[in-house]
Amino acid sequence: MDLFSFFSRKPSSKDVAKDRLKLVLIHDRVNCSTQVLEMLKTDIIRVISNYMEIDEEELDIQITQTETDGTNGSVPMLYANIPIKSMRKVQM
Fold it and tell me: Mean per-residue pLDDT for 31-35?
């Protein structure tokens, strides 16, 4: 078995559907509609763009579930992967 082929295999449609369903359920639990997530994404882009140039095409912002160390079980988590092209000079 080729190690690289193991990591590069495409997920099955069942796995993709399962992940999408998880995302829908998470958004429902956090009471975060698609519109709210888009507004949040726009605000994050606006604020971060004051300080750095970012790649908006590769931007990835999601709400996911994560396990906590305490007794809360799993909690919602805001995940943001924001590629930075360059830093801006900020006037102080």
Answer: 73
